[in-house]
Amino acid sequence: MIKVETKLFLRDRATVLFGVLFPTALLLGLGSIPDLRTPSADLGGLRPIDVWAPTALVFGIVMIAVQHVPTVIATYRERGILRRLSTTPVHPRNVLIAQMIVAFSSVLVSAALMIFAAWAVLGIAPPEQPLKFAVAFVIGYAAVLGISMITAAVVRSSSAATSIGTLLFVVLMFFGGAFLPRAIMPEVLQTIGDFVPPGLQALISSWSPAAGEITGAGMSFWVQLSVMAGIAVITAAVAAKLFRWE
Known about the structure:
- The chain is mainly alpha-helical.
- It has one domain (2-242).
- The chain has helices at 2-11, 13-31, 48-78, 81-85, 92-122, 130-154, 158-175, 187-193, 200-207, 209-215, 221-242.
- It is built from eleven helices and no strands.
- Helix content is 74%, strand content 0%.
- Helix 2 (13-31) runs antiparallel to helix 3 (48-78) and helix 3 packs across helix 9 (200-207).
């Protein structure tokens, strides 16, 4: 099933383009602006692009988890695929597991590509605390996926999944710093953003502690990680409770 889901994922050119490749393209595009590559005294000698870089990861996480996964599952439900599979040795649960594995793998590829390009092209150092960064990345993704799976659990059509996914995408990307960099957000928005997956501040502070001090609004790394883990567990439980095969 993983092989089949991988082939289907690769055929979805929009998701491959915007979920896997676009985060790198976005970072490199912004990095081509001279002012963003100039060290700033207001940022403690860091460049704006150094502080903003982790935000590009959010785009890939949200695009795949919120836009792609629910739409695929809703399409399977809409076409009766999940119901038909329940009468075969291939239980529909296996399809969902395969979909989760493929989606997470694509997010990892997106992140690895972006981190490498950031280092090779823009001179942005890789995450300074790689273990903490990996934990923040995985838990943050799980929190976003948990929210999206509530949608995937109940919607009956791919169009409905896409509409809800678009709304969630805008909200999560806003607090993920895509529209307004976290460093210049009002403190109240930074505080709200601390509770919004995937937990941008945890990603920033584990990538660069110096950048984390600039963008931080008071919530510590481990507290935010606990919040994200709580969201992941609660939303996953709700999604499992509400999930319908038909």
